[in-house]
């Protein structure tokens, strides 16, 4: 079968101390400290074999995450610039959906012909974190497309327990399988936003004001979810023109360029003026620009306001905590999208027409042309063997 296959050399940087798991399994917790001379291409790979507890999926569509492009970039020493959980060689792609073509002998709740979306955080169910129900904090975490073969391929095999049916979406869209595949591929980034906003952050009361920093795919999903959740004024901050238009399409009432403000105080003052002094009930930090966003949030929180940290940032962020303490506000960290009924809830929203994340799609590329798709940095790019080739 055809697949986008990535290889790299396991060469820990001088001074980097390997953990026991990194040493014994070859899975890097901090990929940019270990993987050198990373390279990827579309090539022929063996078709995967379905295990007893697995399903084999004919991939219908897969989303290109910023991670997929970032991990292929190299620093001055030739190391991958992606600092996350990884193992190579591997078929990448962790946002995907497709049709089941084979089931293992122990699989009871799925059948051939079911359309499914796949969680990207594959929790073990046995570690201390999992036993607490904190699947996204699993200590034995595996991730398709990052630690084992994923969805940038014609076929993929995954454990059945990580699959969620898309049949309701197909029915809502009159039997349109590609609509289900495309939305199914975007449940993962939508679920990341859902986890932060509702599971970790606790959501808002309808009528609260919401501000979203960053209009990448996670930020766009946050905008869509907050719109349907009843945000009164929904404000986004984004500087890239293409992303500004996408934010509006996904439901933002106002979109401002954060670089246009003279100071954080000016930005916070504007938010207080826009909300008639009430402040922002929920901030979704999806930009990872925390040294710029926290000074704004500190001075524009509503009483009992919430900050949800979803974007990943590099380095330390100085925070004046007084604003949160004075307003009885909270800061919630969030990572991942597994468990807690997140996938079923997102699917239900899609299957009722409440959200349609196809609004953020900016490109559709055949698997053979995936490297061209990785050049697009705004919105969500989808990959499928069903899309036409570039001429």
Which stretches are poorly predicted, pLDDT < 50 over at least 5 residues?
none
Reading the helices and strands in chain order gives EHEEHEEEHEEHHHEHEHEHEHEHEHEHE
Strand fraction equals 15-25%
The largest sheet is: 7 strands, mixed
End-to-end separation in angstroms reads: 22 Å
By helix and strand content, what is the structural category?
Answer: alpha/beta
Describe the structure.
The chain is α/β, with parallel strands linked by helices and about 400 residues long. Helices cover about 25% and strands about 25% of the residues. It contains 13 helices and 16 strands. The strands form 3 sheets. Strands 3, 5, 6, 7, 8, 15 and 16 form a 7-stranded mixed sheet that branches. Strands 11-10-9-12-13-14 form a 6-stranded parallel sheet, sandwiched between helices. Helix 6 crosses helix 12. The protein is globular and about 60 Å long. It starts with a strand and ends in a 7-residue tail after the last strand.
